[in-house]
Amino acid sequence: MSDASGGEAGADRVDSAAGAGSAEPELHASPPAGLAPSPGLAPSPGILPPKITPPPGLVRSPFEGTVLGGAAAAVPPFGTAQAQPPQQQQAQVQSQAQAESQAQAQLQALAQQQHQQPQVQQQKPTRRPTPTPTSAPDPSPPPVPPDTVRSPAPPRAARPRGAGKAGSGLSRGAIIGVVAGIGSVGLLLFALIAGFSSTNAPAPTAEPEASESSADTVERFLTALSEGDAGTAARLTGSTEDDPVLGDEVLARSLELAPITDIEVERTGDDASYSHTVRASFRIGEQRVSRSFSVWPTSDGWELDDALIALPLFSLEGLGIEINGVESEVTYPMVFPGAYEIGVRNDAFEVSSEGEPLAPVTVASQDDLEPLYSVDAQLTEEATETFRDLVRSSLEECLASTSLSTPCGFDVSEPLDDGAIPVEGTAHRALAAEGERALGELAPEPDTAQPGRVTTYDYIYVHTSIEAVRDGETISGTLYSSGEMLQPYVDFSRDSPVVTWE
Question: Where is the composition biased (Low complexity) (predicted)?
């Protein structure tokens, strides 16, 4: 018996060894005695959403019938437990944790940038219902506090042997949770940014009052001028009321010289444009004026941009410019349309244009300034006689000196052409007939380098005689040339003008 069994066993091993070299052996499983054969594995149900138990009073899942990603897949009703592999569960939890971590970091960075802005209270996420399977006992852990967000625990159902691997992607429930979390974070970020933008946005520019049109403003400006209301007229041009040239005194004198009458303003309805012009006509004395006024809107209404005229009086600098008797501190004083007397505070001078005293000037716009570009300050007739007298007196004193060099010029100290050396203290000078006439007709000219000073470019002829030594011999005679005369300057800005020779 034992030999026979051993022989059969040896034969089996030989056969197995022989078969191993040709093909892999097949495994067969037979059910234990008393059990029916295995019916096989059911088809995979696919990716299903997480099971959520509705809160009390809610009989229908909020996700039933929801279309996700464009696919009209109906969500199974509540009560059907769906098993999820541990890998899917872990991936879902990690995705949600990563999304929440990124959102929290963005919120912290934004909060640091807006530390001076009112803090926005974040809403706490609502608690997700815990799924309650109907066909298997609930293996989920104990309930968590209400403010804690957690994913539903999968049922501990054993995976049948031989079943295929589940898909590696997230389940529909995981996608819904991630999308909802990102959406909530996005809304919160939008609220924070919107609050920051609205807090720091600049205030809108105020529009002019709708009760008065731009034409009304121009008419009100001209009416104020005609009535002597300098304060209202100045405000409508955006000027300050502390400028004395734009005060009531100057305007009152202007109206005495040339009243403003016959005011007419065109009304074209151009107020819809931001900046435009309004045409008007009026009279300044006997002169009819027609011009446009540029207007633009401000918070207080329309404002005239070019109603004032700058008078070019730079040639009068340093003399104390006066407009209608009021002193101006600038050489380009701004004035209203009107008539003006231009003068200077120094009584020794008068304002002239092309050699003639300047008459009152009527200006309505910048086009009327031509006469002012040639104005200058000339000595009055009285001051001119004073100038001539001062120069004569100083020159006569200078010519009385016997020195070879004098304060007024006429230097004859250099050797003569024949080598003769002039002898100091022997010079005698006297006015020539031409020089006498020149002194009586000296033409004073303003010193452009120093306001208030006056000089002359007229030459005064003088005869000079001296003694000189030539080859040890003293000779004398009248010189052919008496030398150059220095220029006389008289400073009329001083209380007591004197002559200086330069």
Answer: 30-39, 81-124
Give residue for tokens 């009086």.
Answer: 313
Distance in Å from the first CA to the final CA of the chain = 161
435 and 456 in a single domain? The answer is yes
Sequence-distant (≥ 6) Cβ neighbours of residue 451 within 8 angstroms = 316, 317, 318, 319, 377, 493
Q: What does the buried/exposed string (b/e) look like for 91-104 if buried means 16 or more CB atoms within 10 Å of the residue's CB?
A: bbeebbeebbeebe
Whole-angstrom distance, CA of residue 73 vs CA of residue 63 = 11
Q: What is the pTM of this model?
A: 0.55
In-domain check, residue 370: yes
What pLDDT sits at residue 261? 98
Mean model confidence pLDDT for the chain? 75
Q: Letter for the amino acid at 393?
A: S
Task: Check if the beta carbon of residue 342 is closer than 8 Å to that of residue 404.
Answer: no
Domain that holds residue 479: 381-501
Residues 419-429 as b/e (b if ≥16 CB within 10 A, e otherwise) read ebebeeebbeb
Q: Are residues 260 and 280 in the same domain?
A: yes
- The first and second tokens of residue 15, run together, are 């056969």
Give the SS3 label for residue 175: helix
What are 112-154's pLDDT values in tens digits? Answer: 665 544 443 444 444 444 444 444 444 444 444 444 444 444 4
Residues 362 and 225 in one domain: yes
Average pLDDT over residues 462-480: 94
Examine the domain organization and report whether 399 and 345 are in the same domain: no
